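Final report, closing paragraph on structural work. Over the funding period we assembled a curated collection of sequence-structure pairs, and we close with a single example.
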Amino acid sequence: MFRPVACCLLVFCSFITQNSRAQRSLRLLDTGWSFHRGDIPGAEKGNWEGIACEKVDLPHDWSIEDLPGTESPFSPDAVNGVSIGFTIGGTGWYRHSFTVPLSQQRQRTYIRFDGIYMNADVWLNGIYLGGHPYGYTAFRLDITKALHYGGANSLTVKVRNEGATSRWYPGSGIYRHVWMETTPAVHVALWGTYIRTTRADTAVATINIRTTLQNTQTAPVHLTLKTIILDPAGHRVGEVDSSAISLGAGDSLDLEQRIRVNRPSLWSNKSPVLYEAVTKLYDTRGEVCDETSSSFGIRTIHFDAARGLLLNGKPIKLRGGCIHDDNGPLGCRSFDRAEERRAQLLLANGYNAVRCAHNPPAPAFLDACDRLGLLVIDEAFDCWEDGKNPQDYHLYFDEWWQRDIQSMVFRDRNHPSVILWSIGNEIPNKDSPRVAAMAQRLADYTRELDPARGIISAVNGISDQTTPFMAALDVAGYNYERARYSADHDKYPDRVMLSTESYPLDAYDYWKEATAHPYVAGDFVWTAWDYIGESSIGWRCSPADKRFYPWHLAFCGDIDICGWKRPASYFRDALWHTTENISLFVESPSPSFEPNPQKPDWCRWNWFDVVARWNWEGQGEKPLRIDIYSTCPEAELFLNDRSLGRKAVSKCIAVWTVPYEAGTLRAVGYRDDKPVCRSVLRTATKPARIRLRVDRTRIASGGEDLSYVTVEVVDAQGTRDPRASNLMHFQVQGAGSIVGVGNANPLSTESCQSPGRHCWEGRCLVILRSWRQKGLLTLKVSSEGLPANEVTVNVD
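Its predicted structure, as stored:
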């Protein structure tokens, strides 16, 4: 199986043996595409003459680009606007030219798309290859017979994201990588190596490996299969041979092998050790006719009602959050570094698990979770036969669900980070026998493909009538249903429960319920990371009308779309108590945004209207509410070094009421009467300079790597001014370009790609993309009234 493994960058990679007959390659086709936004009649036949096109590199998402004639991707007239953040879909055409040498004529050649949103149709040299409706699963097409060997080839892709297709921002276009795969005529199938740990402890591990072989020749072959296990240092720690394999012409075969590994290093969230399985296929002359490599981890997972989740036999409570697919200012463009950065920041902010809601994630995200130790619920669908939008996946479910489940499971089943398969989210009509029967079909089929993991579905509105639906699951996903835990456990003592969605405002109660009951495996908040679409559910809630424009963000994430912590994330630091901590916030004396007087009581995805700010000129003697979040049993508040007293911290919060006075507000946390942590807010004085914080000063060349630069307005002492809204101007020189800008303001309709952005709360974000050549990449930032500043990134 070929599965790209990347740190920050996916590059051209190939496995080539000394025998030229056994050549397999994987070529990235992300550069040099032509794109037209809108329909082109006859484009599949090459009828592009006179059509205005732009040159684009993948990954690409046209819905995050500025609308024609504007400097914004957002429109109040967008179809399904509130749901998808007032962005525009439609139809788009892509074309790419490439050559294939004559030497590959005896091999098989495929095009693989990691993700196209949505309704993709593909032609090569005017020959229709096939289509794929679902926007989130990978698919591969055999292009061997349509190729012009030794000459130019034209690949054409039509994408249709028309109408109300989603309940959140899905992006539009070829937003993940595209690959050209070349294999020998006799080869290991795509995702054809399935690695499963059946036993593991610190003494020994037993690894079962199922390999799918394919013979596309017109004659039978006789083969030998060897699998070698390499440890992280590249040392051979196990191998097995299977000889006398007969494979008929045009046939495929599944072959089972078992390998023992002594003294294995077990994969866990705290020690994410990865092994490599090298698969070699030999012909009767002993020559290699195919070779592949697969990354995996040695670990066991088990769920039961007595202990919850056991990872390598040890109980672990899931500190989880849900995430959607977009990457904020990048739209849904899936750059490997963007996926890795998100996983890193989630881990850094206390999460040990993530639910990919409500679709399979990008391959690079799971690769990062494997390397970093972030546990994953891999989810298939948001709906089945009954839709939630007129043009969503329900139109294709009956015909495509098996293929899409197979694509998800085959692609992802070797990832040690994946602990559960979710077959759906809040499926309509779940109480009906028809839907319960479908749940059983999906669960059974998923188990058939991968018996090593359990099946879950996120369910809302749970009742006794939901029991047949729940019976299909190994773990019952409870959305906003903590009040049912104890009563349901009494009725169904063998049911394993997991809070698959919870309200931020009720974070304390959900976590305490999860930790109090072993049969509740953990809690997943909605949501860990903010996202485009479901506009304003974290403030006003979301009626389906235009009055909420220009809201385009959900504004409910612990972490905002730029990757910066929001107040709820600091509360979660205290709640999860991974280290001693304390943080300090001020309740806004007037609403930060216009409130919704008709907001329903059940809409609890917001957090309290608090900010990390000590600039409140004009407040006079009017007292301000101060919230302190802490792990400590006691906290003390100081204003300009005067103690305002100690208070007990209850449910991770202590509250003061303080008249405003410019200067310094300081909180100190105490344990056993000793100060163990502190937090400070300072009054920002006159803006004096621009500060640039870059996450990585060295990135890879090749056109795929990113560097994130936070731009801040600070005073002479280095305090960020949360009042600053300066327009920042960006200039780039050298080996890269700007690929995205943002500021996390949920109402800002500015361009996400222009060389300028207003600050919000005193900061904004610039995302730099490397070019293919090496060199230096310099970003210069300027703003009226402030001295310019610059930062340089090495592109290696």
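Helices lie at 336-348, 363-372, 397-412, 433-449, 467-471, 485-491, 507-516, 567-576. Confidence is low (pLDDT under 50) at residues 1-21. We thank the funder for supporting this effort.
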